Amino acid sequence: MAERPRCRVVALISGRGSNLQAILDGVDDGSLPVEMLAVVSNEPGAGGLARAERAGVAPRVVPHRGRPRREFEAELGTLLAELSPDLVVLAGFMRVLGAELVERFRGRMLNIHPSLLPDYRGLDTHARALADGGAEHGVSVHFVTPELDGGPVIAQTRVPVLANDTPEGLAARVLVQEHRLYPLMVRWFATGRLALREERIYLDGLPLARPILFSGDEPCDC
Which has the closest alpha carbon to 11: 34, 35, 36, 28? Predict the structure, then answer.
């Protein structure tokens, strides 16, 4: 039987790239059957670019500051067209992409968000969760659509909120789960298990009625 071609991936980042590193580690240890084509940042000084270089992945910069959004997105779109990825992963990419670019990659663009969506879309999720006094928080991986943090959610991991928690402490525990959940979702996509058809998520050919919910232990490849 012919070996399945490796999924061609581009990562978009804006900062330190810790979720990027979790994916790069999976490529390095063989658990992720993907080919990393490039790591693209809108911030020239992003720490994740150095991570890409150390992993032997091409670092690319498409700066957004001091230029019209349309011009920035046109350059980014041209670069993505040249790279021709099977999957685009947003790994701490802090720019809201316009509908035209997002639609071009519908079903082929993933994002990770530090909350149990649809709760706490946008920024400052940990502080907002603590202010509301809830018992749990978490992380979600979803397909990207033009609606901010509003695309179909594939899977989530719950993280308990502890007594006397701080935004920093909660964020650190959520980040541990991010590093576990995101590579798993990339693997599911890369191996053909995961797909978006119209607005519905399919796993192993069957529609998901609701997001898969993990409870804080390491997500299993099941």
Answer: 36
Give the span between the Cα atoms of 88 and 103, in whole angstroms.
12
Closest of 133, 218, 135, 134 to residue 180, by C-alpha: 218
Query: Residue 215: what pLDDT?
Result: 85
For residue 192, the model assigns a pLDDT of 97
Joined tokens for residue 127: 């502080």
Give me the pLDDT at residue 120, please.
97
The closest of 73, 58, 47, 152 to 109, measured between CA atoms, is: 152
Of 113, 126, 142, 179, catalytic: 113
Q: How far, in Å, CA of 167 to CA of 160, rounded?
A: 13
The CATH number of the domain holding residue 167 is: 3.40.50.170
Q: Is 126 a catalytic residue?
A: no
Instruction: Report pTM.
Output: 0.95
Q: Is 137 helix (H, G, I), strand (E, B) or coil?
A: strand
The torsion angles phi and psi of 20, rounded to 5 degrees, stand at -60, -45
Distances (CA, A) of 184 to 53, 127, 143, 189: 23, 27, 14, 9
Across the 222 residues of the chain, what is the mean pLDDT of every consecutive 10-residue run?
Answer: 79 98 98 98 98 98 96 98 98 96 97 98 97 96 96 98 97 98 98 95 97 76 54
- The total number of structural domains in the chain stands at 2
Question: Last residue of some domain: 72, 105, 138?
Answer: 105
Torsion of CA 188, 192, 197, 200, to 10 degrees: -30
